């Protein structure tokens, strides 16, 4: 597919003459939906997209949002429906609330995308006492220094905290460990 980036080529629905099964095609279409609040990561990168299965002629996408009060929930669900419809499927999106989403579900690629965008990715092991009570050591996504300080428990969105690097003096968001 000349002229397409690798991501665009991977996300483009494959035609009927190609060897992809419907469920795989549907998953690929939904997996390419970007997070409306952090447009450099997809819902698959964040672990929000749990599964896509075929039920008859309907592609059923199951999503677990980062938290139930997430203001992006409707935007994500509508974007998944549109992606599935654009790929030629009759879409249905189901919200899965258990188990609750965890930052441990963010892929390694997603963590790197967050860091490159200037957001410190969450530390692993969200169920640790240190992570739960905000004692996590946060590295600056710009210079890598661990000499950082939390300025505010809330950053640009409720799922991020605002930090400042005392080495390079730059403020940055930290994706909270949940």
Features:
single chain, 2 domains, three-stranded mixed β-sheet, GMP Synthetase, Chain A, domain 3, alpha/beta, 178 residues, four-stranded mixed β-sheet
The CATH architecture category of the largest domain equals 2-Layer Sandwich
| Number of alpha- plus pi-helical segments | 5
- Assigned CATH superfamily of the largest domain: Fe-S cluster assembly (FSCA)
Mean pLDDT: 85
Strand order, biggest sheet? 4-7-6-5
- SS class: alpha/beta
Low-confidence stretches: 1-6
How many domain modules? 2
CATH class of the largest domain: Alpha Beta
- What Rg, in angstroms, do the CA atoms define? 18 Å
Biggest sheet statistics:
4 strands, mixed
Run of helices and strands: HHEEHEHEHEEE
Please tell me what the overall shape is.
elongated
Distance between the termini: 39 Å
Task: Kindly identify the CATH topology of the largest domain.
Answer: GMP Synthetase, Chain A, domain 3
**Helical content class:** 10-25%
Strand content: 15-25%
What is the tally of beta strands?
7
Describe it for me?
This is Phenylacetic acid degradation protein. With about 180 residues, the chain is an alpha/beta fold. It folds into two domains: about 90 residues, GMP Synthetase, Chain A, domain 3 (2-Layer Sandwich), CATH 3.30.300.130; about 70 residues, no CATH class. Helix content is about 25%, strand content about 20%. The chain contains five helices and seven strands; from the N terminus they run H-H-E-E-H-E-H-E-H-E-E-E. The strands form two sheets. It has a four-stranded mixed sheet with strand order 4-7-6-5. Helix 2 crosses helix 3. The radius of gyration is 18 Å and the shape is elongated.
């Amino acid at each position: 597919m000349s002229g397409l980036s690798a991501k665009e080529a991977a996300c483009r629905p494959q035609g009927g003459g190609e060897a992809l099964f419907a469920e795989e095609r549907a998953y690929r279409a939904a997996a390419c939906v970007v997070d409306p609040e952090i447009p450099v990561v997809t819902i698959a990168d964040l672990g929000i997209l749990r599964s896509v299965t075929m039920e008859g002629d309907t592609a059923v996408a199951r999503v677990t949002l980062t938290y139930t009060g997430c203001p992006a929930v409707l935007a994500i669900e509508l974007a998944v429906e549109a992606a599935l419809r654009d790929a030629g499927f009759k879409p249905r999106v189901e919200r899965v609330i258990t188990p609750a989403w965890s930052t441990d579900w963010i892929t390694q690629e997603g963590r790197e995308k967050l860091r490159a965008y200037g957001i410190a990715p969450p530390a692993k092991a969200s169920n640790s006492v240190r992570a739960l009570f905000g004692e996590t050591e946060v590295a600056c996504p710009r210079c890598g220094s661990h000499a950082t300080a939390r300025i505010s428990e809330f950053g640009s969105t409720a799922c991020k905290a605002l930090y400042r690097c005392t080495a390079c003096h730059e403020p940055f968001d930290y994706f909270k460990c949940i």
